[in-house]
């Protein structure tokens, strides 16, 4: 969100999530004082829904699957002129998620292995191994 122009920020952001992306976006929106609407699936775990709401963002429950929530979020973004923050198909999101590699390296420099999860639709996989490989010369 820090890459967005002030006039875009003023209108707010919208995102779709089955859970984890919603927490990241709502945390950043709260921190940066950006209005945010998060569309989550009706099947999202209540703990993730509550964690998202606790950051003061608007939460809309829609559909049973991520694609349903994503379609609704895109409709809201278009109708309300809000910026759509894609959960995994956005270079800024992927780059931001990859910074966890820097945190891992700073905390645990003497690593033999890092197991990177690739399940779900998250954006960790594309960037995290690349950053770790740059920081840890012995990484494969």
TrEMBL record:
Kindly indicate whether the keyword Chaperone belongs to this entry. no
Query: Which top-level group of life is the source organism from?
Result: Bacteria
User: What is the E.C. number?
Assistant: 4.3.1.19
Q: Where is the Tryptophan synthase beta chain-like PALP domain?
A: 9-122
Reactions this protein catalyses: L-threonine = 2-oxobutanoate + NH4(+)
Which cofactors does this gene product need?
A: pyridoxal 5'-phosphate
Write down what this protein is called: threonine ammonia-lyase
This chain's function reads: Catalyzes the anaerobic formation of alpha-ketobutyrate and ammonia from threonine in a two-step reaction. The first step involved a dehydration of threonine and a production of enamine intermediates (aminocrotonate), which tautomerizes to its imine form (iminobutyrate). Both intermediates are unstable and short-lived. The second step is the nonenzymatic hydrolysis of the enamine/imine intermediates to form 2-ketobutyrate and free ammonia. In the low water environment of the cell, the second step is accelerated by RidA.
For the protein in the UniProt heading, the enzyme class is: lyase
Give GO BP annotations, semicolon-separated: isoleucine biosynthetic process; L-serine catabolic process; L-threonine catabolic process
SUPFAM superfamilies attached to this UniProt entry: Tryptophan synthase beta subunit-like PLP-dependent enzymes
Q: Does the keyword Lyase apply?
A: yes
Going by the UniProt record, its keywords in alphabetical order are: Lyase, Pyridoxal phosphate
Q: Name one GO molecular function term.
A: threonine deaminase activity
Question: Which family does the record assign?
Answer: Belongs to the serine/threonine dehydratase family.
């Amino acid at each position: 969100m820090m890459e967005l122009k002030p006039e875009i920020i003023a209108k707010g952001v919208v995102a779709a999530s089955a859970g984890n992306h919603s927490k990241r976006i709502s945390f950043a929106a709260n921190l940066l004082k950006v209005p945010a609407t998060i569309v989550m699936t009706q099947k999202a775990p209540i703990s993730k829904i509550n964690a998202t709401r606790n950051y003061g963002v608007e939460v809309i429950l829609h559909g049973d699957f991520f694609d349903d929530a994503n379609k609704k979020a895109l409709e809201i973004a278009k109708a309300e002129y809000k910026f759509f923050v894609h959960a995994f198909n956005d270079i800024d999101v992927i780059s931001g998620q990859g910074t966890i590699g820097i945190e891992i390296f700073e905390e645990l420099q003497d690593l033999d292995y890092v197991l990177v999860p690739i399940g779900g639709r998250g954006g960790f996989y594309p960037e995290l191994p690349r950053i770790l490989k740059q920081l840890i010369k012995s990484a494969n």
